[in-house]
Design brief:
The chain is of the alpha/beta class. Helices cover 49% and strands 9% of the residues. The model is unreliable at 28-43 (pLDDT under 50).
């Protein structure tokens, strides 16, 4: 009884701590809109740096407190209330304009760097995307890193014609060209694990070895570094500025060609987007680990997760969504390399409308993964 009473006392104190935290920071946020805005005298159309920074800190602190008791819906309620501040604090239009302006600025810079006025004179960075065992997601990670490196060192990124490890195709076969004016290069013997802006060599090839690239990860522009020109704006605007920054390069890359756009349109037509659809990626087959994650040498083996673990954040998302919207249809899209996963979701969650592509799951299996199927 004493232990139970202590547990109740601790739980009660935790909830009081959350309430006090929200109340205290809400008061602080009020003064950040009045006193601080008056002191720093910013435009009425945008919040002060302190206001936005405080709002992000509050959201992160609440999430951290909620991690101690993920079953407590109080965390979701508070998160929802904080997120509603964005719609009621009169700064929502400013955030949308600022995001659009920063996105345009970065995308324009990448495009300009990829299309120099004289390709013959332009410095180039060549990347070979045929890393051993590297799938599509892995390739996109490497390509985005190459593109970031090229922009930071004022070089044009050119992808080689080496085929993908899993296929005879190349990344250039499925994505929109990175440049309309500069796509060729002359072979160079200068193969390097890292690139610096003061190199005078016209064409450099980034070494085709993932581990050597990681071993030389010392360039000043590597993530989570941010461009000084926009760092303050990003830190004020987003909770994860380094993720936003790297995401700009992924976004520049992931522009499908005409055939790819047709395939995507056909897939979209098969899904009812009149209500929200939550995407769930379940990696199985070669990524199934043990009960706990472990390392064997330099290889990391993740822990195996149950279907219920994947669905917990999904159900929390719908709960929070319905705090500010009418009850909605539960819909999820399952992307998996294991056909059994789709069957398990259907069996365990009959109240959900479940989308997925069985043929894609079959083609991603270990027996077909290395074929042209």
């Amino acid at each position: 009884e004493t232990k139970q009473g202590q547990n109740i006392f601790v739980e009660s104190n935790m909830k009081m701590l959350i309430v006090l935290l929200v109340f205290t920071i809400t008061v602080m946020m009020y003064f950040s809109r009045t006193v601080l805005n008056f002191i720093h005298a910013p435009s009425k159309l945008q919040p002060s740096f302190e206001y936005e920074n405080l709002r992000w800190r509050l959201l992160m602190d609440v999430k951290e407190l909620g991690n101690r008791d993920s079953s407590d819906d109080q965390k979701l309620i508070i998160e929802s209330q904080i997120e509603q501040l964005e719609k009621t604090d009169e700064y929502e239009d400013w955030r949308a304009r600022e995001l659009e302006e920063l996105t345009t600025l970065v995308q324009t810079s990448i495009k300009r760097n990829q299309n120099p006025p004289d390709c013959r004179q332009a410095k180039k960075l060549v990347c070979h995307l045929n890393h051993y065992g590297c799938g599509f997601g892995c390739l996109m990670h490497h390509t985005a890193y190459c593109l970031l490196t090229a922009l930071a060192t004022q070089r044009v990124l050119v992808l080689s014609h080496h085929p993908w490890f899993y296929s005879n195709a190349t990344v250039k076969d499925i994505l929109h060209p990175l440049s309309t004016s500069c796509t060729q290069y002359k072979d160079s013997s200068d193969i390097v694990p890292q690139v610096f802006s003061n190199s005078s060599t016209n064409t450099l090839q980034l070494i085709n070895d993932y581990y050597k690239i990681l071993g030389n990860y010392s360039q000043p522009y590597n993530p989570p570094a941010l461009p000084q020109e926009i760092s303050d704006r990003l830190i004020r605007l987003t909770q994860d500025p380094d993720a936003w920054w790297f995401g700009q390069f992924v976004g520049f890359l992931l522009k499908p060609d005409q055939e790819g756009r047709t395939l995507l349109s056909e897939a979209v037509d098969k899904i009812n987007f009149t209500s929200p659809v939550v995407g769930v990626h379940v990696r199985q087959t070669d990524k199934i680990g043990a009960a706990i994650p472990y390392h064997r040498g330099s290889v990391f083996y993740p822990a195996m997760h149950s279907i219920e673990e994947f669905m917990e954040p999904v159900e929390n998302w719908f709960k929070k969504y319905e705090m500010t919207h009418p009850p909605t249809k539960r819909q999820i899209y399952i992307a998996s390399d294991d056909p059994q996963v789709l069957q398990s979701f259907h069996a365990k969650y009959p109240n959900y409308t479940i989308y997925g592509n069985l043929n894609n799951s079959l083609a991603a299996g270990l027996d077909l993964r290395y074929s042209e199927a």
